[in-house]
Amino acid sequence: MTKYIGKSMSRVDGVAKVTGKAKYAAEYSAPDLAYGYVVCSTIAKGKITRINTDEVLQIPGVIQLFTHENRPRLACFDLNYKDQDAPPGSPFRPLRDEKVVYNGQPIALVVAETFEVARYAASLVKVEYEQEDHDTALEHNLHRGRGPKSGVASLLKSPPPKPRGDFEKAFQAAPFKTTGQHIHSVEHHNPIEMFSSTVVYEKNGKLTIYDKTQGAPNSQMYVAQVFNLPFKDVRVISPYVGGAFGSGLRPQYQLFLAVLAALELKRSVRVSLTRQQMFTFGHRPATVQNLSLGATADGTLDAIRHDAIAETSRFEDYFEIVVNWSGMLYPAENTKSTYDLVPLDVFTPLDMRAPGGVTGVPALEMEIDELAHKIGMDPVEFRLKNYTEKDMDQDLPFSSKELRECFRQGAERFGWSGRKPEPRSMRRGHTLIGWGMATGIWEASQGPARAEAVLTVNGKLRVTSATADIGTGTYTIMTQIAADTLGMPIEDVIFRLGDSDMPLAPIEGGSWTAATVGTAVKVACEDLGKKLFKMAQKMKNSPFADVKQDDITFADAHIRLKSDPSVAVSLLDIVGTNGGRAVSETSTSLPSMLEQRKYARAAHSAVFVEVEVDEDFGTVRVTRAVTAVAGGRILNPKTARSQIVGGMVWGISKALEEESVMDHQFGRFMNHNLSEYHVAVHADIRELDVIFVEENDTIVNPLGVKGLGEIGIVGMPAAVANAIFHATGKRVRSLPITLDKLL
Ligand code: MOS
Q1: Using an 8 Å Cβ cutoff, are 438 and 611 in contact?
Q2: What is the pTM of this model?
Q3: What is the per-residue pLDDT across 253-264, written as a single tens digit (0 to 9) for each?
């Protein structure tokens, strides 16, 4: 029975956030707090030959200038620097030595009594370099592409699938075919909250660290290993995150620098990055993709070739799934795909909302649109004709897949049947109107996690797990799951997260948190329920003395007999028998791999977009969009809708605006601010509509959820690009589609 799961609920953390009660990493203070300001390199490659340390130390209020010359001895093995999201390779180590390996590299930290003095002193740091030639342009180095090094990589990262059939032969023979090169620019995460760490140096030398992160235990592990500290002496707290989008999956360099300074000075230190410095670490990598599709005379998609080349750094092989989606979306018999990396003198790229998915799928879905156009088939009809019930590459059926229903409901809501197929055939005054659509897909995964459920002496349920809430609604859905599992009124349930002292949970990413932590919360509450039932059985005159667990239920903060709910014992009375102590249970949940591995598991979407393109100026406006999502069970339609709308907004932003432009002469991003790095704002967004298609999945995880953090963005860029093609007859394959490309 669910009273809360499946119901729209406002965020339980909403009031704290809008009233400013929710504190972020840079808002915690400590007695005698010192302030660090980072100095970044201004060259892309070379050696530091001199830093004017003595002069900087003369400035009143400056406490220390940390550089590679005076840093303490630190762990020397790469393994110590590997965080939960580290790709194969040697992680970057700030202040390691005199070498500069990318432009913007943190090379010094000024620590001062006030932030203002630290910033002022940092502006007076003079660095002399011995410069070397650098290479930062992917498009000039495509010939250097090579496969990623194998090694430990995070969940969701598998190599390209093996070829099937004979692509060359099928493509040669295909009466309908398309070939296109798709170029995606670098994008940077631009959350509202800048990366910050406040390191509180406790009297006993232990550290309490307020950090911006998508996983407090990940930061704890990193700090303990790099600085050779016992885990118990490092506590990382991160209850609120002001947006992250993947950037918080790895500890960023301000954490390292703040901890280093605090340990050396035996004093609390805060280091915050500026907006400009937010452009000096991970980013979505630039990619070049070549796609070729072939279809038979009756419109059967028969051949797919997908080759992708992405940039990475010289020291780590960041890689993502770019070319593996076609086998999950289309039943073509002849396929071939490759994925290569080009190491450049840049920082290692980093996961960003739907990493790889919103790179590979848009390219594929734009070529599918082109092919349907050449055949003369409606794009929805073409996708329905080439629909797959199984993942072709893994040869596994889907645990559930209601994509057909997404097409049907999405098309109906949008009014797709009114579309005139010919490009440039619809207009409104001097603007061309285009209707485009695309499919989205994202994997539904679950990992292991732990949670603790506590019934307090006051009869309140308190559940904790060391996960994060990056604005996705984790606090709220976990509260709903806990309340329903133990039959508690939601006002009496509190869920807490973001503390490395709490039971372990993985980094919050990959859209796996609802499934992963949700299951742990459910199991912990179930286990607590079992414990409470046993206690109830032992109570004096217990009505449950001879009753089996199967015959009772938890409702309205009572244990009740299923056959006669008036036979009941209140949870408050049960905890009252515990000698004035709370009753608690900590549980671990693991995915049931035996069952899950027999199926492919993914969320799907169908996206429909209308654009207006000004014929004279080439300006594009997305006037309305509908996304129909098959994402398993929807825990909370309100927060779920917010996730999809957020993804759609970013999809529009990626399609039309976002681009980090590098000046390759300096190997430096030029538009490192929000006035020149354009993101979609209110004025860019009109009508967005979200449909959740019913999808019952008993295999994917015990909750039947698929996760919604990423599926909302995946289908959007291609739907926009396809709408622009329909409006203008121009197929632009490089994102973002800025007006110069349409004129
Ligand atoms: Mo997401 S890019 O896995 O935070």
Answers
A1: no
A2: 0.97
A3: 999 999 999 999
